[in-house]
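Handout, section 4.2: multi-component inputs.
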Amino acid sequence: MEFILSILIGILFTAAVYLILSRSLLKVILGTGLLSHGAHLLILTMGGLGGTAPPVVIDGVTDFADPLPQALILTAIVISFGVTAVMLVMAYRMYDVHRTDNMNELRGNDEHD
Amino acid sequence: MEFVLLIFLPVIFALLVPFAYKKIKGIHTGWFVLVVPLVLFGYYLSFLPLVMDGGHAISEMKWIPSLGIAFTSYIDGLSLLFTLLITGIGSLVVLYSVFYMDREKEDLGSFYVYLLIFMTAMLGVVQSDNTMTLYLFWELTSISSFLLIGFWYTKDKSRFGALKSMMITVFGGLMMLGAFILLSIMGETFSVRELIAQAPDLLNQPYFTLALVLLLLGAFTKSAQFPFYIWLPDAMEAPTPVSAYLHSATMVKAGIYLVARFTPIFGSASTWIWLVTGIGLLTLFWGSFFAVKQTDLKAILAFSTVSQLGLIMSLLGAGAISYHATAAMFGFATYAAIFHLINHAAFKGGLFMIAGIIDHETGTRDIRKLGGLMSVMPISFTVAAIGSLSMAGLPPFSGFLSKEMFLESMVALQHFELFNFDTWGILFPIVAWIASVFTFTYSMYFVLKTFIGQKKFDQLPKQPHEAPIGMLISPMILATIVILVFFIPNVIGKWIIKPAVMAVQPTLYASPSAVDIHVKAWHGFGAAGLWLTIGVVVFGTLLYLTIPKWQPLYRIQPDKLSLNNGYDAMMRGSEKGLNRVSRLYMTGKIRTYLLYMFAFMSVTIIAILFIKDAFVLDMNSFTAITLYGSLNAIVLILSVGFVVFAKSRLAAIIALGGVGYSVALFFVIFKAPDLALTQLVIETVSVALFLLAFKHLPALSTHGETKRNKMVNLIVSLSVGVMVTLVALSSHSQKMIPSISQYYKDTVETEAAGGNIVNVILVDYRGFDTFFEIAVLAIAGIAVLGMIRLRVSRKEPTDENK
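Output:
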């Protein structure tokens, strides 16, 4: 299963980077969303996908999943939500002010070189 | 006592200066500062008896012992001579500055702080036995000189001059560092003394000549030798006390010191003799010739300093000949160099102070506007006349003695028979003599045009009058020394010069008294020096009288061919060229920068994985493939494809939601219920947020991306994907250290009294992490709110450069 997931993570990262490099701001934001999904699965896979039960201590169960990656991912999910929210609002304001979502046009002006 | 600490006395005292300046308004800050050089001068005088007998003193303070770098104060004849110059002239300059620098108008706090930093740096240069600390102090002198030249930083010329001196001297300093490193490789030590002890072995080492040239670059830039002298005239924008101190008496002599100090190592090489003597003479001639062209008093003195430094340099080069020929006349040269160095410090310091006085009392330094000041400024005139006549090499002033020794040494050069000197040697006395004629001319030019001749007081910005007595004390003391030395040259010789000569040529002399030289003013009619001096006076007077006739000759040299123009072109060119280079890769587009980062990251990591054999694939550690897992993977891939290729915004956002939900399903499959729940909630909120925002965003567009752009993007993103896959596989396959998870599993009930390990980690074991995570979310929330609600009024764009 780890093998399949590793490839899946690779696909997620490829798609994410491809979108981030594009010129449309919305695509960049979509890309960061994919990037965080990829990162979460990466943490999970690196730790190992074994275990037959959730990491909750109940009498009689000894083989449960690794709790550490899960704790890390839980934090990461919430933070990535914060990042997405800020980026979306920033894009909204940016478009409001500059009337463009072309990354090439959003490069400052020569005055501030 | 560890006298190495005394090097730092000025800089420690500098910490107190700003307080004295701010709190004690009634007294000029200079009076407090004056204590430092005076105390040091008095203390270092106590080394005289020891050094006079050929002894030396060492004091060491460890700095980086593991690298062999230490602050070592090594006091022998040479370093004591310079130390006394630094502290002695330093005292006089500080005294002079008390009257020169206005307490009300000038920022005295900064001025004296810079001056004290310089004092420490200069003491460090001449006393350090460790080449690394020598380099450190060397650069510190450049930096303090930069600060002092740019002291009146509102003037464009000051800033230009400061930068120019810094560029040139720091370049030289770096070259010198190269020489030190080469020397330390060859001799396996940073200590100058130990290097000198191995001098004969170093001679045949492969890097010897390279180290020699690099070291000379350092010395020549600092001591304003041709063609690096161009920074010195521009450094005249500094306040006059600084010019008198740094740019005539001490800092510019650091290069002389360096050459003298390293003569025992390099002196026996023919390259050394040719370069030091040749460049020295060329500088001597060049400086004296162009001094007459100048119209600014300080510029005349600057060129004359350049020329006199060349004179001392050439004497040091000629002195090195004594390694090959034992004839007494060559040993003469080193003695003359040291002697002239002292004399120059005395008369040039005084002349600079007079130039400052004239500037201060008349409001101008332009020699064309000055004239006839003798009647109103008789004391200044007397001092200036003494200084100028000494500089011109006339009796009864000290300059006469050393100048005559210089001419004798140059005449002697033609009798040296090694290294082609027998064919070219005749050039040396000729060039030296011509330069001396010009030296005589500009000395007369300086003093006569200013003090004698027509009175033009109506052209002056201020009504001239004699300077306050306090300002005159320092130049008068220096003038007295100039006369005194003429009558007691051999006393100075015994106390100061002979120990210094012994330090320069330790292999030739066992003790200072072995330096068998007796200075005389009169050698009889047969002496070559006498007739050369008479010739100098005759031709110099002729040249002076005819200045108006031949001065226009200087205009023949087009400005475009001057060294200054070359420097300017180089600075402009490097600025433009480097700007163009950085524009090549700094496009201002985020995509470009991200491309660099992603490409660099993936290439480096993949390369390291394979070079270091870090990629390991352990199929046995993998868990079995399940049906649900595989199906979910297919769903996820399809959703990702939709996100990338969707034509409409709505489809892309919904597909992104699909990716999120299938990731949540993976969490279910891999026994992570908490994650699955969180992911479902967050994903739902995210999609809602996207939908809210997308109403305000334009339709998806490629914005004219070319095929080529897309190909580059694809290649880079594929390499990132491959890199991540490889890292995921190999980090799963090899665990170098055991995970901390076991600890959590074991202690979750006993230590934290909980059952759900993930939750307990978040709120208990890593409670603070979670706490700060909440803080981050709160900040993000405030940012979101702020960006939606706040409207910044549209202001005119502000340009911070204006």
